[in-house]
Write a structure and sequence with these properties.
alpha/beta; TIM Barrel; eight-stranded parallel beta barrel; 43% helix; binds 2-phosphoglycolic acid
C-alpha cells in the first residue's frame, strides 16, 4: 500500500512566539499547494497557539513536543492531551531520545503516553533508536525491537492505525552524522517486521516509519527514496523556512 509521507519539524527549545510566527509567514508560501506529503511543525509549548493560528487554513499541522499521560493533575510543568487539543494541535512527539536521556523517560512512560494519545485521537510520533555503543556491539535490532515492544504493550489492533514511528539513531541526532540510506532502510525493515509480529501485517503495512537524525536538504531525497522510509523528523535543518521547505519538497 502507499503511505503518505510525513515531514515533521522538531524545533526543540528554539524560537519565541514572534520567531515562530516569522518562520510560518516565510514558510507557508514556500509549500503552498504541496499535498504529496503531510507537514507538521512541533514548536515549543509557549509558541503552540501562535503557530496553530498562523497555519490556520493551510496544509500544515501542529503538534506538541511532549505530552503527559494523565488526564490532569499535580504535574508541574506538564501539558495534557485535552490542553493540546484545546489549542488546536493534532500531533505529539513521544519518547524523543532527548526526553529519554535528560528527563528519564523510559519505555513504560512512552507506553502510557501512547495510550493516552490514541485515546484522545492525537497522532503520536513514537521515537526509537539505538546509541552508538549499541550499534557497534551489533545490538541495533535488539534495542529497536525492545523499544517497540515496550511502546506498543497493550495497544490494540483497532487503536493502532494512527501510530507513526520515528527511527532516530541517537548517534545521528544533532551530530551531522547521518545514517546512510542503506543503514536507515535496514533499520526500517527491522521495525516494520517487528510491528508485523506485534500487531499483524496489515498494521505494519500501514504504519509510517520516519527517519530522523541530521536530515538536511542535500540528503533528504536519498533517504526518502528508500522503500520503507515514509518521511522525516527534522531538528536543526527545520529551523530555517527555506531549508525545511527544501526537505519537504525532496
Ligand atoms: P537533527 O534532530 O535533525 O538536528 O539531528 C533530529 C531530532 O532530534 O528529531
Amino acid at each position: 500500500m502507499s503511505r503518505k509521507a510525513l515531514i515533521a519539524a522538531n524545533w526543540k527549545m528554539y524560537k519565541t512566539p514572534a520567531e515562530a510566527q516569522a518562520f510560518v509567514d516565510a514558510f507557508l508560501p514556500l509549500v503552498a499547494g504541496h499535498t504529496r506529503d503531510e507537514i507538521v511543525l512541533f514548536p515549543s509549548a509557549t509558541s503552540l497557539s501562535t503557530v496553530v493560528e498562523a497555519v490556520a487554513g493551510s496544509n500544515v499541522a501542529v503538534g506538541l513536543q511532549n505530552m503527559h499521560w494523565a488526564e490532569e493533575g499535580a504535574y508541574t510543568g506538564e501539558s495534557s492531551a485535552a490542553m493540546l487539543k484545546a489549542v488546536g494541535a493534532t500531533h505529539t512527539l513521544i519518547g524523543h531520545s532527548e526526553r529519554r536521556q535528560y528527563f528519564g523517560e523510559n519505555d513504560e512512560v512512552v507506553n502510557l503516553k501512547l495510550q493516552t494519545a490514541l485515546k484522545h485521537g492525537i497522532i503520536p510520533i513514537v521515537c526509537i533508536g539505538e546509541h552508538l555503543d549499541e550499534r557497534e556491539a551489533g545490538k541495533t535490532a535488539v534495542v529497536l525491537c525492545a523499544q517497540l515492544r515496550g511502546a506498543l504493550t497493550g495497544v490494540t489492533l483497532e487503536a493502532a492505525a494512527p501510530i507513526v514511528i520515528a527511527y532516530e539513531p541517537v548517534w545521528a541526532i544533532g551530530t551531522g552524522r547521518t545514517a546512510t540510506p542503506e543503514m536507515a532502510a535496514e533499520a526500517h525493515q527491522i521495525i516494520r517486521a517487528e510491528i508485523s509480529q506485534i500487531l499483524g501485517p496489515a498494521v505494519a503495512d500501514a504504519v509510517r516509519i520516519l527517519y530522523g537524525g541530521s536530515v538536511k536538504p542535500d540528503n533528504a531525497s536519498s533517504l526518502l527514496q528508500q522503500h520503507d522510509i515514509d518521511g522525516a523528523l527534522v531538528g536543526g535543518a527545520s529551523l530555517k523556512p527555506d531549508s525545511f521547505a527544501a526537505i519537504v519538497k525532496y
